[in-house]
Design the sequence.
């Protein structure tokens, strides 16, 4: 198919001509980058000596505040891997790994091995570090390692300490970053994507976003519907529940996963010896939690408390991994074996490339809080509400309810984001992909995105385990590839069956998206 690329010399005038047709008369001028942002051309260069020459990087400038585009610009790092077949080129496929706070500059290289040749022949793969992340004006709040750990269970005795932690994180971020924080939002990142589109000389962009990247993609389609081409949203956020509600979804989704694990493990008592009924398996687990609360268990070289075990709730979505880990933990508690977890066989996720490691050590955490606190104005301000909610949800969702609803730095964020949250309700044609057993964006979350995106079709992998689908050799890959290469959505929603091994253990380990935590619990991401 003929490429949709615009000749560079015509890019500015072509985009300027499109703006009136794409924007309602009542929309703010900030909805569309002004032509002066589009006059730049990327100076492409090899990303690093450790990467192939074909993998190129560049830095462009975008406004910090799109309502005052001439006041201050920030750097935005972008990358590309050009199509393997220029004659078949359709355009560009922007990529986002999730987060918020995750680097995406390396995605064209890291995801290329997982994408089919038919897709790579259609598109230049485009990566970018979102604003505030990696090489794109990275944030830092000067947070210590302890301040970055926000897996905090509710306890009456430590509530005042946790409130102080949340206030301290907010105050340190505002002291170091000031007004900049108001502009590190999903809406502004979507605008940055549109600048990328324009400076690349494209009329439209196609997009593949995982996890938080699904929300970013949905916001882009809401703001720039006629510039949205083929959009794939993989493992989706529910846009109606950003962002406190999405943390609470982790607790809600973990209970049925724990129930499933208990039944699966009981059926294999001869192997795991954790109990021959679901109730006995659960009793063994909660006994370990109580034991670790009384005296932490040395495990993997770390002292693990009962709260740490609960914080590892994501493991229960992968039933075989969880059974093996709990067996190892039980043996460690009993002093019967070396305190190390078994090799689950899950592939290691690729490390960030050398060229992407220059950001401050707390940049991921700082960018995470900047986005989730500024995207929406719905965070409660009264610490006592967090207390009440944590007590309520620990009773309702014992595994993780108090963690999810406990106080967060957003309670003390001094300034709201520069704009209200985005309502997602458009009819752009989108394909969403969802595993039945996803620890970070559970099935209910994916269904929420599908409801909001009125023009979407959803592929559900029944029995599928893991966070991230496309590129993991899932039964959903065929439908996603067909859509990206032909533009044809399925006539109706699709459900396909995960093969038996994939129902027990995640197959998404090689995808370049943030990994959920295990034991001991560390901060999760979308």
Sequence:
């Amino acid at each position: 198919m003929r490429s949709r690329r615009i000749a560079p010399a015509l890019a500015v005038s072509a985009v300027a001509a499109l703006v009136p047709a794409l924007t309602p008369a009542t929309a703010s001028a900030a909805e569309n980058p002004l032509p002066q942002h589009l006059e730049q051309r990327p100076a492409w260069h090899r990303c690093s000596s450790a990467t192939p020459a074909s993998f190129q990087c560049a830095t462009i400038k975008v406004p910090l505040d799109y309502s005052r585009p001439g006041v201050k610009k920030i750097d935005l790092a972008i990358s590309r891997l050009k199509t393997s077949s220029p004659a078949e080129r359709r355009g560009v496929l922007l990529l986002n790994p999730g987060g918020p706070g995750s680097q995406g500059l390396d995605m064209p290289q890291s995801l290329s091995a997982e994408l089919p040749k038919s897709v790579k022949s259609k598109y230049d793969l485009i990566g970018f570090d979102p604003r505030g992340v990696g090489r794109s004006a990275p944030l830092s709040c000067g947070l210590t390692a302890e301040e970055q750990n926000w897996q905090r269970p509710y306890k009456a005795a430590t509530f005042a300490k946790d409130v102080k932690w949340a206030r301290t994180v907010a105050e340190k971020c505002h002291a170091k970053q000031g007004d900049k924080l108001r502009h590190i939002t999903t809406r502004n990142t979507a605008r940055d994507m549109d600048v990328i589109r324009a400076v690349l000389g494209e009329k439209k962009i196609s997009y593949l976003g995982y996890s938080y990247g699904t929300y970013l993609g949905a916001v882009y389609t809401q703001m720039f519907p006629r510039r949205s081409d083929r959009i794939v949203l993989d493992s989706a956020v529910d846009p109606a529940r950003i962002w406190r509600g999405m943390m609470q979804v982790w607790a809600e989704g973990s209970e049925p996963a724990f129930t499933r694990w208990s039944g699966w493990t009981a059926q294999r008592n001869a192997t795991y010896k954790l109990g021959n009924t679901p109730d006995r398996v659960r009793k063994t687990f909660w006994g370990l939690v109580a034991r670790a609360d009384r005296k932490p268990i040395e495990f993997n070289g770390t002292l693990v408390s009962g709260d740490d075990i609960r914080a590892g709730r994501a493991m229960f979505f992968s039933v075989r991994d969880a059974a093996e880990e709990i067996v190892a933990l039980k043996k460690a508690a009993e002093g019967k074996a070396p305190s190390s977890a078994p090799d689950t066989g899950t592939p290691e996720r690729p490390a960030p490339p050398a060229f992407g490691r220059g950001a401050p050590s707390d940049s991921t955490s700082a960018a995470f809080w900047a986005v989730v606190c500024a995207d929406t104005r719905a965070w409660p301000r009264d610490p006592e509400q967090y207390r009440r909610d944590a007590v309520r949800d620990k009773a309702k969702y014992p595994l993780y309810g108090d963690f999810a609803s406990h106080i967060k730095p957003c309670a003390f964020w001094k300034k709201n984001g520069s704009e209200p949250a985005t309502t997602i309700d458009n009819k752009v044609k989108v394909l969403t992909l969802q595993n039945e057993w996803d620890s970070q964006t559970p099935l209910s979350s994916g269904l929420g995105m599908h409801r909001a995106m009125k023009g979407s079709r959803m592929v559900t992998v029944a029995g599928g385990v893991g966070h991230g689908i496309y590129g993991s050799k899932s039964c959903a890959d065929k439908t996603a590839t067909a859509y990206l290469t032909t533009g044809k959505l399925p006539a109706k929603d699709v459900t396909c069956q995960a093969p038996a091994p994939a129902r027990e253990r995640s197959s998404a380990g090689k995808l370049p998206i943030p990994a959920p935590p295990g034991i001991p619990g560390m901060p999760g991401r979308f």
